[in-house]
Amino acid sequence: MLGLSLGKLLFLAIVITLVWYGFKYVSRVAAVQQRAKADMMRRRGQGNVEPPRRPVEDLVKCQRCGSFVSAEGAGNCGKPGCPWGH
Q: Has this prediction a pTM greater than 0.85?
């Protein structure tokens, strides 16, 4: 029987569980420290104070219903006579 007993298997399972939760704890502590450092830098006026920019899209007004749709790839608004009907 390969020299494995129930006690050895149980001990191995406990060790694996402890290592798993240890890594999770360390990564959580590092994430909290990183967020605290970024927050402190933002409060001092250093670092990136504005959120990252998103790409801007041009919008055009639908002549039929008045809703605004993307200029590129505009789709049908669902009203009859929609200028972007496909």
A: no
